[in-house]
Amino acid sequence: MQKYIFLLPLYNDWESLTLLLTKINEEIKSKNKIADILVINDCSTVLTPTFFSLSNINKINILNLKSNLGSQKAISVGLKYLKKKDDEMIITILDSDGEDDVSKIPHMLSEAEKNPKKVIVSTRTKRQENFIFKMLYFSHKILTFIFTLKWISFGNFSSFHSNQLHKILSNNSSWLAFSSAVVKNCDIKKIQAERKKRLIGSSKLSFLNLVFHSLRVSSVFFLRSLLFSSLYIIILSFLYIKGSNWSLPFILFIIFFNIFLFLTISINNQKVFMHSLDYIKKN
Questions:
Q1: Considering the domain 4-130+151-201 in this protein, what is its CATH number?
Q2: Beta bridge partners of 191
Q3: Which of 10, 124, 139, 221 is most exposed, with minimal Cβ within 10 Å?
């Protein structure tokens, strides 16, 4: 019998998680599947509640981290933990706030079973955020594409066979951004899903956090960014010499953007990933 496991990074969203687990249970029950839950508790300041029994969820395991790493690193730790267990399974990653469309879970599991050499990702269609946030997020995707020629329109919501773990975790890219690690290292298959509203509360993603997230996503492709940036600078410098003064601000922006990418890589030291399981508290 195929083993299924759901990996959810979490910081204080215990109420949302309780509601979400009920929804996950309903979806896997409709397909007569039994699953385990792995929660990566990213050093929450709210106490862990007692979970009630659900018919099609076998067990709920909680990995408590020693410090707050952020969702991307928490996912990376969780994946490395699963890889170490060396079990054959279908892994599904989704956020704990309920914004991922759980009605797509049966389809994603089915696709992951039929495509064991691909990562099934959920590309976002309709989003629930305000207009300003939507524009900022779209700008993030455009900027990533300009510097990397990679259009990354999905986040954490994904399903895949455990044989993909070694690819996802290779070159330590997942320590920076899960979506970029998947694009860089794996073959993917996209399905469309609406971005739902949070089950409880409001989004914690601020403008500054979005900027940092965008830098982490692009920094996975730092060498590509340097290559294309060099090309852009050569073209813009030629135009500047010809009298197009408007090109100078773009040249400066490109230079500073790559400096920020380098700083992002330095701050998020990928070498730490080699010992990332040390962040897990011992029970």
A1: 3.90.550.10
A2: 122
A3: 139
